[in-house]
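Sequence in, structure out.
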Amino acid sequence: MSELRKNKLTGEWVLYAENRQKRPYEFVKKMDYKQTGKEHCPFCKGNEQQTTSPVFQDRKENWSIRAFPNRFPAVTEKEQTLHKESFYENKSAVGRHEVVVDTPNHDQTIEQFSVQHLKNVLLTLQKRFLSMIKQQNIKQVQIFKNAGADAGMSIKHSHWQLIGLPTVSKRQQEYETTAEQYYGQTHKCVVCDMIAWEKQQQKRVCKQTEHFIAIAPYASRFSYEVWIIPNKHTSSFANVEESLFEELAKLLKEILCDITELREDISYNICFIESGKQAQKQQPESSHWMIQILPRIGGFAGFEFATETYINSVLPETAAKWYQKREKQ
């Protein structure tokens, strides 16, 4: 059963999915990896029967990308009967949860992909996003990748996830509210103005291409955090033109190669950020899609959990210089 419960003090929704306890976990603790063997990996070629039926597969036999519903979904496909309490608010967590396996090679990591293959992976993610966002009950689609145990990865084999939610997350609502308020005051997109400022200042620009910019955000939560943003105002990942995917894949690969040099076996998260479906319809002028890459160096402790104020030991200006230096090597 999947259930959403609303925190009466903060207004945020918490997603409960007890069936997720049953999912396989291939790490003993943190960076220690269980040597379970490829023959037991449900994402390896030859073990397709261990997953649900695919909703996408680039080739019938010798596939390189495969997408299917998660066997242990965080959300359910059908409405469920829940126990209601008059003081609190809850709802059935109806949506979709898919896995995209981006390589048949058990030990291959994303920064090792060719640019062409990574481009095909991004195109597949866009196709699955488009399929999911059309569903009437889904209000937000979150695309993410957990790389490494410290980033929440449970199966070592490289993969992505997409979760279609019946609510918009509190953090995304904050993005939307801030962007809409800025647009109301200036008639400009706050992210577009951010890009213009960063290009002018040249303090936090990590890398640039013709159509994309990678910056260390001014108030980054994570050490060496990077945002990849389209230069041209693009409200949704759904609207990224196919002609730009090779350029995006090349830039993403370069950033991830740099991140793997920070330390051995580093973990990181890749998160696609954009407004919920309703905000996209009402005010696309204030919505600007981006990719956030979050290296997991250190961890959150009591202060962060209590205050939601993050302590970062690396200034974004320092991080940007490091990425710039890597590019010149």
